[in-house]
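Please describe our next protein:
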Amino acid sequence: MTERSAPRRELERIRDGGGPGADQARVALTTETAAERLRGAILALATARGADSSTCPSDAARAVATDWRPLLPQARELARELARAGRVRLTRRGRPLDPDEEWRGPIRIRAGAGARRLPGASTGG
C-alpha cells in the first residue's frame, strides 16, 4: 500500500469533518480533472487552515497526485485565478502579492477575508 502524503490526509480529515472546506475537499478528492482537483485542494486547505495560517501550491499538488511536481505551475496559476476572484489572498513573507503582477519564488495562499479555521486543522505558517 502506498503512503498518502500529509496534505492528502489533511484533505481527507477536512472532508470527513464536514466543516469549512469540506465541500472543496470532496471535489479535490473525487473530481476527474487535475484543474478541478487542484482548485478544490487550494480552497479546502486555505479555508480549513483559516485566515491566521496559509498553504502553498505544493501542498495542493501533493494532496491530489503522487507525481505532484508537474502540477506546480498549474497550481500557482489557479491560485492567481482564485486571488483575482477574491477567494484567496497570495503572500510572500507576509506581504500581499498582486495576482496580476509577475513574481517568482515561493508564495503562500491564505483564506479570503470571510473564511474560518476548522478546529483541529494543521497550520501551514
User: Anything to note?
Assistant: The radius of gyration is 13 Å. The chain has five helices and three strands. The helical segments are 6-17, 22-30, 34-49, 57-64, 72-84. Residues 114-125 have pLDDT under 50 and may be disordered.
